[in-house]
Each structure stands twice: as structure tokens, then as C-alpha cells.
Design brief:
globular; seven-stranded mixed beta sheet; 12% strand; 46% helix; alpha/beta; 22 helices
Length: 487
């Protein structure tokens, strides 16, 4: 079984007692997909709780349906935007889910909950004596430390030292420990090395929730993110034949799982995996450092279903940084207004973090590559928002000088209107197999996975489809656990 649901009853009882003491109940996957299932009692209490408050009630805000407000909001439709053609420069419609309105401002809070909750309700993690370790290139350790705080667990956040100062400042308010590893976004091996070091030092006192190998991460995005996208498509009345593509950065491989869900409903959809051009691991087995925070590279995540991936899109990190300035500097916004971008669309630019911009550029490349028309739709994800990276604006001004109207016009023309199909690769069978085989060097040689399971991921058609079948069992375990808390 790819997700460990073996029960340890003595630890389950300890975890339930801890949760009862702290007044904690756990939402199910069904409630995260459809918040109308959440009890009226919980909804009434949420009316006085801020979106970022360290309050266990915010576990029930781990979904895409939160009312877009800072405090007291309940639930409505899925949070998404349609990015105007005056920004994308494509004929196709590009639609993006907005991650800003999750607790702590990042959608990774969902993936971390999906890892921690099953471990709690099965007793594979002891909340009373063990620390939860969250190795990450940014947002995942934010979500993990936050959920640990909500659930009364001690946590260790691990992330590269070159990540934005905003991440470190906020982590200091919730994480038990923070460990900064050498390097930047693409230095994932250094994170793994630190995990091995902690295991040797602390043994059974810690449980490592490694997003790159935890199929709970895959499952959350397959179920919750995939269902949210389907809901938006239904709301907009998009004809099945016009649902053309889904674009997401590789990252941990989790968010790509939403594409697997979409492909089960729309078999002809294309799934595009984005990465930084400065670290073209999928494109040409390459390596390097880059500035698109949150999409760590130099390896292929264990939970990336490569056989289901149709394209690789390598995005220049300078384009992302330039567009981040365009979207956030005063002169950039003034320029966009001058070319007819409406006030509401300009306000929505606050929903784009740097990785969200990268995802948008991947979607643009796919729309142009497949020559999509006005009725065609590409879906993508805005994983966090601009507030995660504001210190980068000062850094960029110091490095490149003030952002003028002329610079805004250049960025809009070059990085958006004339974003091309260069460094985009449509994958054939052996292209996919070549990328899949890269898993061997990280996961079999370094991280203890087996050659046999690596082959199962490629040749066993039931391997990936078996994961969503566990959702109902996990929900039953969560329900049973909540009953222990209530009694």
C-alpha cells in the first residue's frame, strides 16, 4: 500500500486524547472538496477566526472555497481568476485557481494536512512525543509548520537558506525549529541530506514527511485540487472538447496530480510540467540554480506520474522576476492600466507569487504551442501570492535600477506578448521513459527506494490509479478518530 494506513491503537488513543484536550477535530477529504458538508457549529465558530490565526478551526479552511477575506469568512465558490488576454497574449482562455485564500496563504497547507492527518488517525505519528519534520523548498514547510501548530504538534521546518526573508520571518512564529540548508531553490539534495542527518541523530523522536515521496501529497491534489478545477469548468460551461491543457510546475510532483484527475475526465487533455530554464532537469537532464521559488529541481519527484505527462515547459527565471516587478511596481501597474487592463484584473495581480507567474508562462507556452483558439481553455495554479516575495522588489531595484514605464513596456512585450514556444518539449514515449528513469539516481541510489517499485511506476497501470481508491478509507479513519474525540 502506497500510503501507510496500518493502525497502532495505543498511539491512536494518545493522539485522540491530545486532540480532545485541545478541542481539535479533523476535516475529511469529502469536506475539503465540498465545504457545504462542514457542520453548522464549525461554521458559526469560524465567523470570529482570522484566516491566518493559529486556531484548529482553520483546519476546516483547508479548501479552495474560502471566502476571500482576512477574517471571519466562510465558504463560497472556488477561488479562481481568468487571466486577461491583454496580459497572456494568447487566443486561448487561461484560468487559474488562487491559493492566496488558504490559511497561511499557500495551497501547500492542504498537501501537508493530507500527510499529517492520516498519520495521526492511524497512530503512525505520535503527536505527544514526536516532532513532524517538513523538508521543503518553501511553501510546504510553511504549511507543515502551520498545521503542526494547529494540531498541537512540535515541528521542524527545513528549507534552503536563500529563500525569501518573508518565509523565514513567518516560520519563526509557528515552527518549533527552523533549519536553513545550503543553497537555493534547486538544492533539494541538501535538504534530503539534512533529513538523513536528523534521522541518525534523533531516530524515533521524529517523523519525516517528505513531500517529494509522500503519496498523500499526490492524493490531496488529485482529489481536492482536481475536483475544484472540475467545479470551475462546470460553472463556466466549458465544453469537454475545449478543455485542452493543464500546466503546473514540477515542484514536489503533487500539484501535477490534479492533471491526472482531469485526464480521467477529459482523456485528450495535455498535462504540462514546468521547470526553470536555468535548471532544465526534465528538458535536457540539466542542473543549475534559479529564482523561481517553490519548484525545487535537480531530480524527478518520486510521486510525479511521468507516464501521464505530455509536455515539459522550461521557463526563464528572469521573465518571472521581470513580470513580478511589472505586476507589483507602481509604474508597471500604471502601464497595464494605460493599455486597457481593467482595475479588477490589476487588483488580481496580487494573487501571483513568483511560481504562479512561472505557471502562467507554462500555460501561455502550451496555448501557443498547440495553436489554441478563443474557445479553448488551459488551467493552471497560483500556489501563493505576491506577499510571499515583497523583499525581492527591493533586491531587484538595487540590482537593476528603478522600474520605469519604459521597462514595463519592454517586459509586457517581451516576457508576455512574445513569450514563445522555445524550450518546450512535447513528450513521446521514450522522452517520458528517459525522464522517469532519472528517478533511479535520486530515489534508488540515494533514498532507498527499490528498482522493482520504480519499474512498477512505469509498467503497472494500477499503480497510480490505486492511490485515489484510498480516499474513502482515510475518511472513515478520520471519522472514527473524531468520534473518539467527541466521546
Amino acid at each position: 500500500m502506497l500510503i501507510n494506513l496500518r493502525k497502532h491503537n495505543a498511539i491512536i488513543e494518545k493522539n485522540a486524547a491530545r486532540c480532545k484536550e485541545k478541542g481539535i477535530k479533523l476535516p475529511t477529504f469529502a469536506e475539503m472538496k465540498d465545504p457545504s458538508l462542514i457542520s453548522e457549529d464549525v461554521k458559526a465558530k469560524l465567523k470570529t477566526v482570522g484566516l491566518w490565526d493559529v486556531n484548529p478551526l482553520n483546519l476546516y479552511r483547508i479548501n479552495w472555497h474560502n471566502e476571500p477575506c482576512e477574517s471571519g469568512g466562510l465558504f463560497g465558490g472556488v477561488n479562481y481568476i481568468e487571466i486577461p488576454r491583454s496580459i497572456t497574449g494568447t487566443k486561448a482562455r487561461i484560468i487559474a485557481l488562487a491559493g492566496k485564500w488558504f490559511p497561511c496563504g499557500v495551497h501547500k497547507v492542504g498537501a501537508t494536512y493530507a500527510c499529517l492527518a492520516p498519520a495521526l488517525v492511524t497512530g503512525n505519528f505520535d503527536a505527544t512525543s514526536q516532532q513532524a519534520v517538513w523538508p521543503s523548498t518553501g511553501n510546504y514547510c510553511r504549511g507543515g509548520a502551520y498545521n503542526s501548530a494547529l494540531l498541537g504538534c512540535s515541528s521542524i521546518a527545513i528549507l534552503p537558506e536563500d529563500m525569501s526573508q518573508e518565509r523565514f520571518n513567518w516560520l519563526k512564529t509557528v515552527a518549533g525549529e527552523i533549519i536553513a540548508t545550503p543553497g537555493c531553490e534547486s538544492n533539494v539534495k541538501e535538504i534530503f541530506d539534512k533529513c538523513h542527518e536528523l534521522n541518525a541523530e534523533r531516530g524515533n523522536h521524529i517523523v519525516i514527511f517528505n513531500q517529494f515521496e509522500q503519496f498523500e501529497n499526490y492524493l490531496w491534489h488529485y482529489e481536492v485540487t482536481g475536483s475544484a478545477i472540475l467545479e470551475v469548468l462546470k460553472e463556466l460551461g466549458i465544453k469537454p472538447g475545449n478543455v485542452k491543457a493543464y500546466a503546473s510546475s514540477t515542484g514536489s510532483g503533487g500539484t501535477l496530480a490534479a492533471g491526472d484527475h482531469l485526464k480521467n475526465v477529459y482523456p485528450n487533455i495535455k498535462i504540462g510540467a514546468g521547470e526553470a530554464l536555468q535548471c532544465p532537469t526534465l528538458l535536457r537532464n540539466g542542473f543549475g540554480a534559479h529564482r523561481i521559488e517553490g519548484i525545487g529541481d535537480k531530480h524527478v519527484p518520486w510521486i510525479h506520474n511521468v507516464r501521464n505527462t505530455d509536455m515539459v515547459l522550461s521557463i526563464d527565471d528572469q521573465d518571472c522576476m521581470d513580470i513580478y516587478r511589472l505586476f507589483n511596481e507602481e509604474e508597471g501597474r500604471k502601464y497595464l492600466a494605460s493599455i486597457g487592463v481593467c482595475d479588477s484584473d490589476i487588483q488580481n495581480l496580487a494573487l501571483f507569487g513568483i511560481s504562479g507567474i512561472g505557471n502562467m508562462l507554462s500555460a501561455i507556452k502550451m496555448a501557443k504551442y498547440y495553436e489554441m483558439d478563443e474557445n479553448d481553455v488551459v488551467f493552471t495554479i497560483l500556489t501563493d501570492s505576491t506577499v510571499m516575495y515583497t523583499s525581492r522588489l527591493k533586491e531587484l531595484t538595487e540590482e537593476q535600477g528603478p522600474f520605469t514605464e519604459r521597462e514595463a513596456a519592454k517586459v509586457h512585450a517581451a516576457a508576455l506578448m512574445h513569450q514563445g514556444i522555445d524550450n518546450a518539449l512535447e513528450l513521446g514515449y521514450y522522452d517520458r521513459l528517459r525522464i522517469h528513469n532519472l528517478k533511479y539516481y535520486t530515489w534508488v541510489e540515494q533514498q532507498g527506494k527499490t528498482y522493482e517499485e520504480l519499474n512498477r511506476q512505469w509498467y503497472d497501470r494500477d499503480y497510480w490509479t490505486s492511490i485515489p481508491k484510498l480516499t474513502k478509507k482515510i475518511d472513515r479513519l478520520i471519522t472514527e478518530f473524531n468520534e473518539k474525540i467527541e466521546n
